[in-house]
């Protein structure tokens, strides 16, 4: 069964110090339309995984030097390879070895001698699930929802969308492995208030605006929901004036000046204040605001401000 012509073949990385033992599996994967890569030790496996971004990794548990468990831990600690499913291949069936495989980040395991058709069935299932998860994360990014899952007790980022990783790298010089210190401290304070909430939406969606030393800009972290096992879903957005103005303009079809007026309304400014800021008269500001009301489908200043705050990142009043 060959891969459909309208998409690339799935890539499988086989990691085994004696790859000749897996010749039958290699041939069966190739005949089934997969692109097969091979690494014979831990360091080369890490390098190939990072460079090739395979869809699935078949990983021998017991290798000389860096064993498969350590390889898996390092793959999961690297943001660019953390989402790749890892299927351990092992001749070890003792419970502690199976537990070690999953603890290291394994998605599944198969025992040697390898049954090629069984392995292909598992590869198909896990690559499909991973692809669906990636599509969901891409959809979040497409709507501007940079999202990350943080494990509260140590601050480790369990997974993140590409946009979240980009923002963390840009504003915090982050390696993508752990949440910024200030964010983790805030998360620990907030979750202490939420005793008993193990899963589900967080009431009030508390948020934190952080000054990012690396970029001199502000980012807003919003606590969205608890996902079980001490893991919390955060949504990250840039909170500078330019980002807010662009968001308002795009969300409501506003002109640049209308977006500025709405921005300052949401910041609690009067028409006279806004006129002073923008170099316009209060009467001109009022005219712009009438157009804003019409485009937003509202009739009051409070309703317009509420919609603006829901759709664009804002700094606190007075900052």
UniProtKB/TrEMBL annotation:
Classification via SUPFAM superfamilies: C-terminal effector domain of the bipartite response regulators, CheY-like
One GO biological process term: regulation of DNA-templated transcription
Entry keywords, A to Z: DNA-binding, Phosphoprotein, Transcription, Transcription regulation, Two-component regulatory system
Domain Response regulatory residues, every copy: 11-127
Stored CDD domains: LuxR_C_like (cd06170), REC_PA4781-like (cd19920)
PROSITE patterns: HTH_LUXR_2, RESPONSE_REGULATORY
One of the record's GO molecular function terms: phosphorelay response regulator activity
Entry's Gene Ontology cellular component terms: cytosol; protein-DNA complex
Residue span, HTH luxR-type domain: 247-312
Protein name per its UniProtKB record: DNA-binding response OmpR family regulator/DNA-binding CsgD family transcriptional regulator
Organism for this UniProt entry: Sphaerotilus sulfidivorans
């Amino acid at each position: 069964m060959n891969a459909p012509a309208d998409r690339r073949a799935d890539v499988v990385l086989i990691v085994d110090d004696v790859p000749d033992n897996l010749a039958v599996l290699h041939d069966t994967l190739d005949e089934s339309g997969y692109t097969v890569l091979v690494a014979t030790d831990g360091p080369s496996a890490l390098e190939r995984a990072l460079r090739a971004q395979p869809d699935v990794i078949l990983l021998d548990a017991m290798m000389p030097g860096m064993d498969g468990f350590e390889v898996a831990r390092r793959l999961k600690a690297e943001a660019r390879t953390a989402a790749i499913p890892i299927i351990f291949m092992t001749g070890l069936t003792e419970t502690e070895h199976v537990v070690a495989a999953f603890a290291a980040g394994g998605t599944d395991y198969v025992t040697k001698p390898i049954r090629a058709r069984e392995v292909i069935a598992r590869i198909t299932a896990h690559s499909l699930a991973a692809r669906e998860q990636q599509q969901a994360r891409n959809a979040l990014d497409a709507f501007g929802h940079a999202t990350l899952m943080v494990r509260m007790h140590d601050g480790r980022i369990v997974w993140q969308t590409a946009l979240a990783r980009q923002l963390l790298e840009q504003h915090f010089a982050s390696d993508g492995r752990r949440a910024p210190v200030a964010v983790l401290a805030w998360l620990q304070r907030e979750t202490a208030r939420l005793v008993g909430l193990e899963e589900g939406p967080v009431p009030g969606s508390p948020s934190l605006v952080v000054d990012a030393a690396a970029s001199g800009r502000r980012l807003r972290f919003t606590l969205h929901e608890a996902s079980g096992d001490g893991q919390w879903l955060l949504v990250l957005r840039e909170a500078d004036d330019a980002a807010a103005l662009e968001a308002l303009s795009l969300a409501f079809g506003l002109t640049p000046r209308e977006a500025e007026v709405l921005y300052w309304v949401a910041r609690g400014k009067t028409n006279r204040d806004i006129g002073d800021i923008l170099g316009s008269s209060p009467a001109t500001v009022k005219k712009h605001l009438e157009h804003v009301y019409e485009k937003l489908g509202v009739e009051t200043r409070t309703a317009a401000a509420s919609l603006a705050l829901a759709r664009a990142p804002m700094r606190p009043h007075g900052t």
